[in-house]
Amino acid sequence: MESVEKAVAKSLMDIKAVMLRPEQPFTWASGWLSPIYCDNRKILSYPQIRENACRWMADIIMEKYPEVEVIAGVATGAIAHGYLVAHILGKPFCYVRPKPKDHGTGSQIEGILEPGKKVVIVEDLISTGMSSLAAKNALVNAGADVLGMVAIFSYNFNHARKAFEDANVELTTLSNYDTLIEVAAETGYVKDSEIEVLKQWRFSPSTWGKKE
Q1: Tens digit of pLDDT for each residue in 21-80?
Q2: Is 38 helix (H, G, I), strand (E, B) or coil?
Q3: Do 40 and 17 meet the contact criterion of CB atoms below 8 Å apart?
Q4: Which of 119, 121, 118 is nearest to 74 (CA)?
Q5: CATH number of this structure's domain 2-201
Q6: Using N-to-C axis directions, what is the helix angle for 177-187 and 2-14, rounded to 10°?
Q7: Helix (H, G, I), strand (E, B) or coil at 148
């Protein structure tokens, strides 16, 4: 997977789906300060990168979960990616809302999902993993047999990895933060002096950059 990991990391940087800015940190919705900002929806605007990412995810699914019957995307970021993966595989597609809608049928899962179906979840980005695992729980509560999850990119937070282990969910990603930093250093995308800062952030993202 190393060549794919590096190719995806480079593509994300090339189209600025990932931006590294240690000197001027971004502020996430959670209030965390971060030297990185990732928006994988930008992939959708680049046909070749979009094609590569979705085909690589489809390949992983067919290798690991050949018995899959349904692909489920996580709203909203992974709806398009999930649909494209399902299209490549010729499988039915549904998507999972963060919570049941407050009108109409009150559905949380949109599309047809029959109880007992074997499902693989497609995500665009894994940060803490909480929203992704909440989608998994919604699918299980609807009667799905969730085989695993495939995502484009993960920050590789320790607590996220533990959360997936505790939930007994196998997660496979095309690329990750460690590979991204490696590629950024090799290509001169960031200064040598910034590499250590970028490495340290991942181990304490909730407190990084905050004054005592």
Answers
A1: 988 999 998 889 999 999 999 999 999 999 999 999 999 999 999 999 999 999 999 999
A2: strand
A3: yes
A4: 121
A5: 3.40.50.2020
A6: 70
A7: strand
